Amino acid sequence: MAQKQQTTQDFIPIQEIRDGIIILKSGAMRSIVLATSLNFALKSGDEQNAILSEFQNFLNSLDFSIQIFAQSKKLDIRPYLALLENRYKEQTTDLMKIQVREYVEFVRSFVESTNIMSKSFFVVVPYDPPIIGSSKNPLANMMPGRDKSKAGKTASADSSFAEYRSQIEQRVAVVEQGLVRCGIRAAELGTEEVVELFYKIFNPGDTEKPIQI
Question: Cβ neighbours of residue 20 under 8 Å, at least 6 residues apart?
Fold first, then answer.
């Protein structure tokens, strides 16, 4: 018997992204919080100790696990160069054109000779809904395509999602407040931002596609 060919989706544990919340195939839920960075080395000794103390208090206050994800990638300067090229075309004096052209060439040569990286920081907040009187989590049956015969199960899954969402949102609020006390700004990602994040993770080569200038 021929074996069924596996698709890319078979290796991705995500079943659905709804209202910014990731629903895994197991029914578990994840929310992602974007966090800013701070230059710890530029802080004074007292400030460093205060930040470390607040971060320690933040971690000790959690009664659930979190995952801190740091994304490092080469900075794509091409959109900025394209913007400068448009500014060059808008200049009406020869002097400004020369200055803009020299600046474009400086930026281009600097980026080519230096490996400039951009970093983004994320905190993954988990919530695993309880399984009571059933072998499966009700969210595990949630799929984009639903027929009318499953209307009852769909209503039950939607009700469960609303209940579980409130639980994970409470955890997100705790994480955001803890990070703010450490001097870090934080914001929960919406659906479009989560989709874009995973797209870039699974398609890193897209950043190398040429941009028309």
Answer: 31, 32, 188, 189, 190, 191, 193, 194
Helix (H, G, I), strand (E, B), or coil: what is residue 73?
strand
Higher pLDDT among residues 135 and 49, named by residue: 49
Residue whose C-alpha is closest to residue 128's, from 22, 10, 35, 9: 22
Report angle CA 191, 195, 197 to the nearest 5 degrees.
Answer: 115
79, 198, 206 from 209: Cα distances, Å: 12, 18, 5
66 with 123: CB under 8 angstroms? yes
Helix, strand, coil shares, percent, the chain, to 5: 55, 20, 30
The position carrying tokens 């080569």 is 205
Task: Classify residue 104 by its DSSP letter.
Answer: H
For the chain, the domains span: 13-72+120-208, 76-115
SS3 for 83-94, per residue? Answer: HHHHHHHHCCCH
Residue type, 137: N
Q: What is the pLDDT of residues 5-24, one digit of tens each?
A: 666 667 788 888 998 999 99
d(CA 67, CA 65): 7
